[in-house]
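B., you asked whether I could sanity-check this one before it goes into the benchmark set. Here's the sequence:
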Amino acid sequence: MRIVNLENIETEKRNQNTLHIDRSSSLQIVEMINHEDAKVAQVVESQKEKIAEIIDRVSEKMQHGGRIIYMGAGTSGRIGVLDASECPPTYGVSPDLVVGLIAGGKDAVFKAKEGAEDDPNLGVEDLKQIHLNETDSVIGLAASGRTPYVIGGLDYASSIGAYTAAISCVRQAEMSKHCQTAVEAITGAEAITGSTRMKAGTAEKMICNMISTGCMIRFGKVYENLMVDVQPTNEKLVIRAKRIIAEAVHCSLDEADVLFEKSRHEVKIAILMGCRNCSYEEAVEYLHQTNGNVQEAIFRSVKK
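And here's what the prediction gave me:
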């Protein structure tokens, strides 16, 4: 692997707009950071076609039983772990469907293990540990675009036929040469030099949000713009589930409460029962026929 001069990487350069941040008031510090953060959404927008391509390719793999696997080190690794951990409670999917791998293992989420990112073989071993196969998708995350741990993982994933994508925050990233789809969100110099947990991390989080959300929509986990596979595992989520039912069915919260009970606390079933005035058993069958897609299940039940 070629040696990279960090001084030439955009995320490592000094930001001329914040040279005096150490002598600024708290309000001025906030204004400077906010001014820099405001640039991130436009940077992400410039990569929208690539991000959409990732969603399409990953969704296709998911239809054949594939998983989404994020790989990263440091902040990038933690962002992948965070996005993966939020999918089960939000969309009711198995914890195995979206996986976050971080160099150094789970302990590195809470305590930095910076040296772990320098070994490409560790990336390979981590993927072998979870039995990576050709139906899976591996998405590498690295602000600098050069993390050996991630590159090793991407190369191994490609070698067995898995789909590969890379998200970095520099031009002509080394990672981009080791994947099928490369996103390069150029966030530029950080407010604090080299602190890529700031703009670069924000861009990576935004992109991961788009990818996982887009894939869950394609996977039938969203009806209109409602999270219809939310798991009502606590009081707040029970209330949210009933509100989702009321919004989808266009009924009162009292009626939604009845549907919630009749559906055995399954939001999708409740929506279908309410929209099509069908029994629990009929709703289950319609959803089975459409692989859990509420929109298609409603359409099919109308046709019948």
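One thing to flag: The first helix runs from residue 26 to 37. Otherwise nothing jumped out at me.
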